[in-house]
Amino acid sequence: MPSYISPSTCLSTEKVKDQYGSRDRLWNMDLLYQEIDELSQIFDVADRGQALIADFKKREAALRANASRDGKQLSYVFWFSSQSPSADAYLGGKNAASGFIADLLGGRNAISADAEWPTLGWESIIAANPDVIVVATLDRNRWELDKPEAKIKFLNSDPAVSQMPAVKNKAIVIMDGQAMNPTIRTIYGAEQVAEQLKALGLTK
């Protein structure tokens, strides 16, 4: 049976021996544009594929035009979820879609792990000292900390985590968890973050 392998989501498990794998370079929209182009040709809707690519490129350029208000390169942590407050946190890796969002907004991912979805304890996250914490909202309701309000409650109530500058400065934003994956939703997630950063006065 003919099959199609997505250039956006095909990962290597050579360096990181887990089910999610890792990337050796930052994911970017070019991979998604390639996928849209190829799929639109496969399904004989090439014109619609090109229109979608043009729309995404316009929105990507608009996001890149935003910069931090004081010219500082903001650092981000993208918190997907945790099994419990005492468990390690699942985070967006440096070269994953989360890292791309940080780069798109003129910043960087504070997490340097190559893994697509590294897990870190809060001691390591505190040491990373991000300027902004992005918390995911998930519809699956597998764990309590899938909910953004549960994440924010933990950030503000934990004795150690609550002392992080990002928490004290209320630099916490909410993003669709699916947008932390490399899909057409990623650009929507970036726009969610950008809108909230502007409301917080962190960008123009």
Structure overview:
This protein is an alpha/beta fold and 204 residues long. The protein folds into two domains: 29-64, no CATH class; 75-199, Nitrogenase molybdenum iron protein domain (Rossmann fold), CATH 3.40.50. Helix content is 37%, strand content 13%. It is built from seven helices and six strands. It has helices spanning 29-42, 46-64, 97-104, 122-128, 148-157, 165-168, 186-199, and strands spanning 75-82, 89-91, 108-109, 119-120, 132-137, 172-176. Strands 1, 2, 3, 4, 5 and 6 form a six-stranded mixed beta sheet that branches. A hairpin with a 6-residue loop joins strand 1 and strand 2. Helix 1 (29-42) runs antiparallel to helix 2 and helix 3 packs across helix 7. It is globular and about 55 Å long. The chain starts with 28 loop residues before the first helix and ends in a 5-residue tail after the last helix. The mean pLDDT is 90.
Q: How many E-type strands?
A: 6
Element-level helix/strand string:
HHEEHEEHEHHEH
Mean pLDDT: 90
CATH names the topology of the largest domain as Rossmann fold
- Major pleated sheet: 6 strands, mixed
